[in-house]
Each structure stands twice: as structure tokens, then as C-alpha cells.
Specification:
Layout lengths: L2 H16 L4 H11 L2 H18 L4 H8 L3 H12 L4 H12 L1
Helix pairs in contact: 3-5
Length: 97
């Protein structure tokens, strides 16, 4: 598949996610779209990112999440890449608490 077509598919996915109204719709959508293992991986990565954001050390993150140090390093690199995807979500979630 060419890059332009893939970008169109990605944008359609992102738009679909933005249409979800509540956690029940979100759960149903992701349980339909993804495998159980994919959802577990997404959940683990966001928890790792939150713990890194909160200043936790790798050993604690490994212990609490079961993530490998390689996964933690990948998440840490993506957080430092400047896209701020995790950070913006953490800020919004904190504001809504």
C-alpha cells in the first residue's frame, strides 16, 4: 500500500476514535477493532508512559506493569521525540479528575 493511501486510512481511524462518546463506546470499539493482546499492549504502554511522566524508575515500572525494559525504553524515547501525545492526554485527564 502506498504511503498516501495509508495516511488516508490512518486519518479515518483517528476520526472514528474522535466520534466515540463514552468509555462504553470506546471499550466496544477497541474490543471489536483489536485483539485482546493488542489492547493489553496499549494499556501497558500508557501505564508505562504515565509512570515515566510521574518520575518512576525503571525497576518500579517493570515490577508494577510487567513491561520489559525494552518496552519502557521505547516509550521513554517516544516521549522525548517531541510529539507530546502522552503528555497532552495526561494533562487533560488530570484536569477532569
Amino acid at each position: 500500500m502506498n504511503h498516501e493511501k495509508q495516511e488516508q486510512y490512518n486519518e479515518y481511524l483517528y476520526s472514528a476514535i474522535l466520534e466515540l462518546k463514552n468509555i462504553d463506546e470506546c471499550r466496544a470499539f477497541f474490543e471489536t477493532l483489536c485483539t485482546t493482546q493488542e489492547i493489553r499492549s496499549f494499556a501497558q504502554r500508557i501505564q508505562v508512559a504515565k509512570m515515566l511522566h510521574d518520575g518512576c524508575v525503571y525497576s518500579r515500572i517493570v515490577h508494577e506493569t510487567g513491561a520489559s525494559t525494552a518496552t519502557i525504553s521505547r516509550v521513554n524515547r517516544s516521549m522525548g521525540a517531541g510529539q507530546n501525545g502522552y503528555e497532552s492526554i495526561f494533562e487533560r485527564m488530570q484536569e477532569s479528575e
